[in-house]
Design a protein that fits this description.
The protein has 6 helices and no strands. It is an all-alpha fold. The chain has one domain (11-94): Serine Threonine Protein Phosphatase 5, Tetratricopeptide repeat (Alpha Horseshoe), CATH 1.25.40. Helix 1 runs parallel beside helix 3 (41-52). The two termini are 18 Å apart.
């Protein structure tokens, strides 16, 4: 699938900055703006934000949308989410280790 357009304002980067600063409401809004701008990276990163906030169903749906938009990282994270949701192993269900999400960090030209 072909890449979607590159937005003139990088709302994904702005959302990551907001999340890092602890403003999760602003981060969610910026990711949703990026999705409206057809930025496929936003699906993956917003899904992670929602899942980490306890909104598993919404996050999983966004991973599916990201896969449909052509984002390979969303596919990897969807597989990770499904394996954890299915209780692949006792360690995966009860681990205190941080999530091992794959996140879009920077764009390349």
């Amino acid at each position: 699938m072909s890449r979607l357009k590159r937005p003139s304002i990088d709302n994904v980067a702005l959302a990551r900055e907001a999340a890092a600063a602890g403003d999760l409401t602003k981060a969610e809004r910026m990711y949703r703006d990026a999705i409206r701008d057809r930025d496929e990276y936003a699906y993956n990163n917003l899904a992670q934000l929602l899942i980490e906030g306890g909104r598993l169903g919404e996050g999983e749906a966004l991973f599916h949308e990201g896969v449909a938009a052509g984002d390979g990282l969303a596919a990897k994270n969807l597989a990770l989410t499904c394996s954890r949701k299915g209780g692949r192993s006792r360690h995966a269900r009860h681990s205190n280790e941080p999530e091992k999400w794959v996140t879009h960090r920077a764009r390349t030209t």
